[in-house]
Amino acid sequence: MSETAAIPTLDGADTFPAYIARPAGEAKAAIIVIQEIFGVNAGIRAKCDGWAAQGYLAVAPELFWRFAPGCELDPDVPEQLQEGFGHFGRYDPDDGVKDIEATIHWVRREEGIGKVGCVGYCLGGRLAYMAATRTDISASVGYYGVMIDQMLGESHAIAHPLMLHIPTADHFVGPEAQAAIHAGLDGHPKVALHDYSGLDHGFAAETGLRRDEAGARLADERTRAFFAENLA
């Protein structure tokens, strides 16, 4: 069952929409699904529906609500891809992590669920890392997160488990950035990194031209096991 909820901002001055997918029975935990630069589109909603089918309450906050409300883009359409890049250039990720924190509070307050994880993609992968460093999220997973190499100074604040999926041929996160991520996080007791040789950015997209079936299945299996262990 799916619905849309209005989540209050941290300061209570506004609300932002979120797609909610509910499990058939009582939720065993909650997972916040963090969008790419393409909004809460069909792929993100499908990921939420998949988590709900596995017994989790899944919540996808609409992160571009301040300047592009209702954004839904298809990365396989060149014009919409460029529109997404424009949104990325305009977006302040500090706002994003505040909205994720507000979503954590909403889940715990309104749904009564204490264990809350998050999984994000691209921009959402960066925000999953930021959630791990700046909030009390129970567990975080990032797929091909961008610009994490520029935020490694925050890694000392990671208090709960974090998993990052890193495709080695990512044309947005190059070899130097990947090396920096490994150098900064390989020894962290709360962090697990997984490399995917030869795969590119977007390999775990739910549908479309970017998806690599074998890579996506492997990464998603690891994510499921990670949440099963850390959100129990």
Provide key terms for this protein.
232 residues; Rossmann fold; globular; alpha/beta; 6 helices
Describe this structure in words.
- The chain has an eight-stranded mixed sheet, sandwiched between helices.
- The protein has helices spanning 42-53, 78-90, 93-111, 123-134, 175-185, 213-230, and strands at residues 2-8, 15-21, 30-34, 57-61, 116-121, 139-143, 162-167, 191-196.
- The chain is α/β, with parallel strands linked by helices.
- The chain is globular, with a radius of gyration of 16 Å.
- The chain has a single domain, classed as Rossmann fold.
- The mean pLDDT is 97.
Question: Numbering strands along the chain, what is their spatial order in the largest sheet?
Answer: 1-2-4-3-5-6-7-8
How many separate domains?
Answer: 1
Task: Catalogue the unreliable spans.
Answer: none
Q: Looking at this structure, what is the CATH superfamily? A: Alpha/Beta hydrolase fold, catalytic domain
Number of beta-strand segments? 8
- Number of helices, where a helix is a run of at least 4 consecutive DSSP H or I residues: 6
Q: Based on Cα principal axes, name the global outline.
A: globular
Cα radius of gyration in angstroms: 16 Å
Strand content: 15-25%
Order of helices and strands: EEEHEHHEHEEHEH
Average pLDDT taken over every residue: 97
- Main sheet? 8 strands, mixed
* Helix/strand class: alpha/beta
CATH topology: Rossmann fold
